[in-house]
């Protein structure tokens, strides 16, 4: 059989189950019910093989910032494939898409973040960062300054290196992680862990855990701290405002490199070009992926400050990927950045979409199932609770409220994700107020049904 969209759904599902291993999935269980087959997408809507239109409040995996179906990106990809579909930049060669994208990123990134090392996605980029910060200190004559401090409930990718940085235990426990010399401190999740403290005091206390860890491990052993400006996959945890300035102070004081993982926050999601700008930090390295190409082509990378790039350039950096700076992906990313810029999409987030969504989102706290409702730009979460006053938690095993809620959303043609005791969204940035009204209607309906 030729497998096309024209086959009946059940047949496609059977063929999928027979040969396709889905990521982050209990494949045996999925095979029983069959995966939903997505056939096309336009704007903020997906279409499935039954012709249902699904509002994608996750922008794929937090990545389709400009929305689906932009022909300009397809045209650029086709043109680039005809002209130069592939060449590498390893052995004293370069090409125009890599040059142009690196220059554009240096222009967009704040301060002296002027140098780009490309990868095919966020996991690869964070692997680059692990090796880059350790090589930086080794080149400076401090090879023992190699511990990287990360956070519990962080997500930095799924390769062995980036997965070791991650702190979502159930995701990262399998398969021999973590690698040595990674240390995790607690996350700034006030709702779940703040107890009687005010959010401000709690934010400070959680940041000061970094200082404690540095003093315990030894200032001359700690290479870097890595964090997502707003934790995404861990449940869209918006930290108290006191948190990041204190982290910055501590990194400065002890000469620790600061890595901001901007894979989700970058390219407009927080209402600025980068989440670092929203939370007011000056990282030495930013991890980028996802919104860099709005997911239209796999590409990521590390944007590196002048000083780190200079020290790395002092020797050979024995690291790189076949698809580092892939010309088609780079050309697609450049076109995506042009659209983000020329159509004022970051301004749209800051001035229109995010303020409108914030008002509607925070009103969800009235719902009987909802504890806190948190939002930063176009990423938002609600904590589900059986008792708001005590901030009690529902059980999180399969079949419990979070799963029911997610399944009701999907049945109501809305993609919304569930993680632990939180429900999260990260929609395309082009969402209009009318789209937001429709999304909120489906969310409220699903919450009512789950209650
Ligand atoms: N870093 C963050 C903050 C992420 O959210 C993700 C993916 O969700 C990654 C890294 C990994 O990126 P990728 O899946 O492209 O390897």
Automatic annotation (TrEMBL):
The keyword Acetylation does not apply. It holds the Pfam family Aminotran_3. The keyword Repeat does not apply. Keywords: Aminotransferase, Pyridoxal phosphate, Pyruvate, Transferase. GO terms for molecular function: pyridoxal phosphate binding; taurine-pyruvate aminotransferase activity. Its EC number is 2.6.1.77. This is Taurine--pyruvate aminotransferase. The gene is tpa_3.
